[in-house]
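Teaching note: in complex prediction, the entire set of molecules is handled at once rather than each chain in isolation. The prompt given to students was simply: 'Predict the structure of this complex.' The entities are:
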Amino acid sequence: MGNSSYRSKTGGLIDRSQTIHFWFDGVRYPAHPGDTLASALLANGVRLAGRSFKYHRPRGILAAGSEEPNALVELRTGARREPNTKATVVEVFDGLEAFSQNRWPSLKFDVMSINSLLAPIFTAGFYYKTFMWPAALWEKLYEPAIRRAAGLGRASDDPDPDRYEKLTAFCDVLVIGGGPAGLMAAVTAARSGARVILADENFNLGGRAIDDASVIDDQPAAQWVCAIEAELDQHSDVRVMRRTSVFGTFDGGTYGALERVSDHLPSPPSGIPRQRMWRIVAKQTVLASGATERPIVFGNNDRTGVMLAGAVRTYINRYGVLPGRRAVVFVNNDYAASTARDLVRAGAAVVAIVDSRPGSTDAVRAVARDVGCPLLDGAVVIDALGSQRLKGAVVRNAAGSTETLSCDLIAMSGGWNPNIQLTTHLGGKPQWSEQLSTFTSGVLPPGMSVAGAASGEFSLKGAIVGGAKVGQVALTQCGYQPVDCAIPSAISESAAMSPLWRVDGGRGKAFVDQQNDVTTLDIELAEREGFRAVEHLKRYTTLGMATDQGRTSNVNALAIMAELTQKSIPQTGMTMARPPYTPVAIGAFAGHHRDKHFKPTRLPPSYAWAKSHGAVFVETGLWLRPSYFPRPGERDWLESVTREVKTVRNSVGICDVSTLGKIDVQGPDAAAFLDKIYMNAMASLAIGRCRYGCMLREDGILLDDGTVARLGQHHYFVTTTTANAGKVFQHLEFCRQWIWPHFDVQIISATEQWAQYAVAGPHSRALLRKIVDQPFDISDQEFPYMQVGEMTVCGGVQARLFRLSFSGERAYEISVPARYGEAFMAALLEAGEEFDACPYGTEALGVMRIEKGHISGAEINGTTTPTDVGLGAMMSRKKDFIGNVLGQRAGLLDPDRPTLVGFQPVDRGQRLRAGAHFLARGVKEIAENDDGYMTSVAYSPTLGHWIGLGLLKRGPQRIGEIVRAFDPLRGYDTLVEVVSPVFIDAKGERVRG
Amino acid sequence: MVENILQARSAFPEFSLSRYHQLTIAVREHITMVSLAAWDGQSEKVQSVIQSIYGHSLPQRPVRVGGMEVSFLWFGPDRWMAVGERDGGRDLEENLKRHLHGLAAVVDHSDGRAVLRLSGARARDVLAKGLPLDLHPRVFKANDVAITHASHIGVLLWQVDDAPTYDIAVPRSYAHSFSDWLLDAAEVFSAI
Amino acid sequence: MRITCPYCGNRSLDEFLYHGDAEPQRPDATADNAMDAFVSYAFERTNPPGQHHELWYHEAGCHAWLVVTRHVSTHAISSVDIARDLAKARTPNTAGRA
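The expected output is the structure of the full assembly:
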C-alpha cells in the first residue's frame, strides 16, 4: 500500500516535482500539489472512502467535483475539525489529516453495516412509521439512537478559530464558471473594457476542456486556458476568483459567493481569512456552470469502483490517475468514445463498452474498433459484483442473456444535466427538453444568460461559440462596444444519447440517491403510498437533501417516478433549487460580526471616566452604560445602588443620560407639527420652558415619552427614551414627509452632539453654581422647575441647562459638546466633593423612578395606553394628533383594563419579582383569573423594603387590597398590597426645592 | 471670562496614524461639521447666501463643493453639511446661523461626528469589507458623497482625491466599534 | 433586492426599512365616520398579487420616505418616487401656519 501504482508516468496538471504527504484514517500517503484528496486516494489505490448514511454500505468515489454524494470525509482535528467535506473538492496539502465517517470501529469492519440487513425498516418514511409510539421515547431513545447510527460526521465542539470576511463587489458582467464557455464570455467582455468578475469553484480554470484534455486553437486546452488567464490578469477591471462558489441568486442582480481562501492550506496565514463571503452586484450575469453527469441506476450501483465516466476522464487527464485497470464502460450516449479512448491511452484495459442503445452509433463503433474492445450494443449492466472492491459487472445483452465481465471499474454515463440551479432561485421554472432528455433553464433571472453545457450545449465548439456570443450580448447591455475577436477553433464532438434511467433485473439494491441511501424500492414505495408529487417524494424519502442537494439523483428519481405513474417527466414535476448551491459555513455569513463584534457597541461620553472609576457596565440596546459604581468594602450591587440612591436623595449625584435620543425640531411649523406628534399640547409651551410629553402610535398605544424644550419661536429640542431614539426619529420623518407634507419643519438628530448629565439631589443647584459661568443666574426665581436655558460652564464651554427631574428630587440635566463630556464629568464630581456627590448608574436611576412611579420601557411596552399608565388626563381633546381617534376605541377605554398602581409586599421582608401575575386571593391559578402583572420592581432604600409597579385590573379602585403575586415559572408566590404608584413625595414638592 | 478648563477628548483616543502597505488611516481631529436644513421654499435663498459668503453653490445631488477652508456636502434633500477644515467650529456655526436666520435650521455636529481619513491604493479593498457601495473610479469620483452604512454603522463618506482618499464620518458613540472593524479589515495589508 | 433611491442612487435592501402599503391615506379626524375610517386606515389591508405601492424609508441613507412600486411576486421594482412630493401633490396645503 502507499505506492503510486495507479498514478500514470506522465500527464495531468499536478506538480510532479514535489511530493507531499497526507493522512487518511491514520495512514500516511504521498500526493502531489494539484491533487484533490479523491485523486490522491485513487492514486494510492484507496477505493473505500466512507460508509453510507443509513445502511453503512462501503462507498467509494463516484464523481470528481462538488456533486459527489459518497466520499464525505472529516478534515483536520481539534477546533478546525470539519465533517462532510467532499474528498473530490478538498485540495491536498502537506500534512492534511482526513478521516472516513460513519464507521465503527473501522472503515473496513463496520458493525453498523448490520443496518443493511434491517433494510426493511429503513425504507422511505421510516422515521414517521417506525418510531411513532410511544412518543415520549422520541427525545430519550429514538432520536439519539438514530443520530448515532445514521449520521454525517462530527462537527467540532470548539469555537471556530478562523476569521471570515464579508465583502461587497460590483461588476458589469459576472461570469459563473471558468470552463471554455465562461472563459470566452469573460474575455470577450473584458476586451471591451467591461468590469468583469469570473468565479469558478475549482482551484484551476478550464472546466471540462482540461478534464477532457481537449484541443483548442490547435493547442492543448491547458495551454489555451493559461493564455486566456494571462490576458484576463492584464485587465485591471477584471477579477478572477478561483475556489469561489456562487451559491445563490438574489433579487436585483445580487449573487452570493463563497471564496475558499485558505482551505487548501494547513491553516490560514496571519491576517488572512479562511473564507470570504462575497455579495456580488452585477448588471449582467453569464451562467456557464457546466453540467453534471447522470449515473445509471442498476443493482449494487453504489459499489466502490462504479464511477461516472466523466470523472474517470477527469482523474486520468487532470490528475494523471487511473481509477481502475480493467474497465467496463456503460453508457446510453456517445461519451463512451472519449472514455474508452482515454482509458486505453492511460494504460487500462477496456473489457467492453456496454451501450444501451441498440446498434450504438458510428462514433462509438469507431472507437471500439480503434481500441480493440468489444462493443455490446443494446446491452445493460444489471449488477455490480464485489463488496469493498468491485470484481465484475453482470451484463444482460440485447438477446436477454447475462454474462459476467471481470473488471475493477465501471465507468458509467447516463447523459448530462445542465447545472441550472442558479436560474431557479428566483422562481424560474426549468423546462424539459425532449431532444436533450434533461431540464434546461426556463425564465431566467433578470440580467442572466446561460452559455455552454449549462445551456444544454454540450460540445466544446458550442461552448466556445456560445460563451463568446453571450459575453458580447452582456457587454452590449452594459453599454460597452464589442471588440472583434476571433473564435478559437475546437471540435464539435457528439453528445448523442438515448434516455436510460434505470436497469431492472439486478439482484442488489439499486441506488438513486447514494448520499441519502434512497433506492428504487423507496421510490416505488413512495408511489404506492401516494407521495407522488416531487416535493412529497423528496420529503418522504429524503431524496435530494444534504450536502450534494441531489445533483446526481434528482432527475433520475423524477424519471423513475414518471415511469411508475406513467406520466411524462414534465408532468411529474421538476426540481427547483434554493440557495445555497454548495454548503456555506455559518462563520462566513457572520464575517467580522461574531463574539463582541456581533453588533456595534455605543459608548457614552463619560465611558472612559466611568471605566477608570470602577463602573460596572450594562448593555442597554447597543449602548454600554454604567450600571453602578461599586466602592471598596461594598459587598454586592444592592449595597452600591442603595448608597447611590441615598446620596441623590440626601445630597447630589450625577448620571450620564447622553444616551437619550435628542432631536432638534426647527421651522416655522415646528409648534404645529409637535402638536400633531404629542398627545398633549406643545404649541402652548413658552420659550425657555420644558414639558413632559407622550406620543402614541396611530392605534392609540403609547410609543414613547420624553421632554420637549422650547428654545425659540421656531426651535424645539425634544428627547426620546434611549431605546426608542431611532424609531421616534423615523416616526417624525414619516409624519413630516408623508402625512403632513406641507409642514415647514426640519428634524435633525443631535443625540451624538451633546454629553448630557443629570445632576440630581437637594444640593444640585449648589453644585451647579460652582460650574456655571458668571453671569448666568440659576436661582429658583430665574431658573424654576421645567426651565431651559443656554449658557456657558467651566470658563466658556457652551452648555444647555434643563431643570428636569426623573428622580423626584431637585434636579437638572446639563449638556456640553460631547468632546468635553469626559472632562465635564470629572469637573462635576470635583465640584461635588464638598457635598459627597457620587456618580450613579442605570440601577439607581431605575430605583428612583420606580419610587416616584415614573413609567419606563417596562410600562411603555407596546400594549399600554396613556390611561393604562395613569396619563389619560394628559390626552388633549382639543386637537388632532397621532393616535387620537383610535385611542378612543371602546376596548382601550375599558375600565377593566390593567392599570398602573404600586405594590409592596405584605411581609415587608419579602422581595418582589417583575413578571409575576396578579390573582385575587382565593381564586384558582388559571389564565381566566389573571388580573395583570408586575412590570418593574426595586428595593427602595428610601422605604427600606421592596416596591413594585404593575398593571392591575381596575388598579386605582383597588388601593389597599391584598392580592397574590404569582410566578409559577420561578416558583414565586407572595401576597402584596396595592398602593399608589408614587411611593415618595406624593405632592411633588421636592422637585421644586 | 476665565479660560475654558475642560480638556477635549478625541473620539478615537486610542487611535494613532496607521500605515499599511499602500494604505494609511488617520484621525481627522480638527474638523468642524455644521448641518444646514433649508425651510420649505427657502432653498434658493439659502443657495444665494452661501454663494455670496463662501462663493460655492450648494449641490443638489450627493457631491461636495468647496475649497480648502470650508466645503459643503450634500446631506439629503435640502440638507447640507458644512465642513470646516480648521478647528473652532463655533465660528462656522455662528456665521451660518447669523446669515441663515429664518431660512434654515443650522445645527452643530462637530462633536457628534468622528472622522477618519483613509488614503492609498488599498483603500477600496478595505472598505469593500463592510461598505456596500461601488467605489470604482468610474462610478464614485473625487468630491462624490454618500450616506450609507459600513459594518452596521451609519457613515457619511466623501472622496477627497484620486489617491484615492476618503473621509468617513461616523456617529461619535460608534467611533470605537468602527475603528475596531476598520483596523481588523486592514490587518491583512500590514507592511510585510 | 436593491432599490434606487431618487437621491442616493442604487442601494442594497439593507439600507431601507419597509413600512407598508402606501395606498391608505390618513382620514380626517373630525369627520363623523372618523372611527370607522381610522380603523380601516390602520388595520385593513388587501394583499393582491401584482403591483403594490409601498412605503419604504431610506434609513441608512438620506432619510427620505419613498413610494416604491413593486411587483410582489417577482420583486421587480417599476418606479421609486419621493413620498413627500407625492403627498404634497395629493393634499391641499391646509396644515401648518395660519
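Point out the following to students. Chain B has a mean pLDDT of 92. Residues 136 and 175 of chain B are 26 Å apart (CA to CA).
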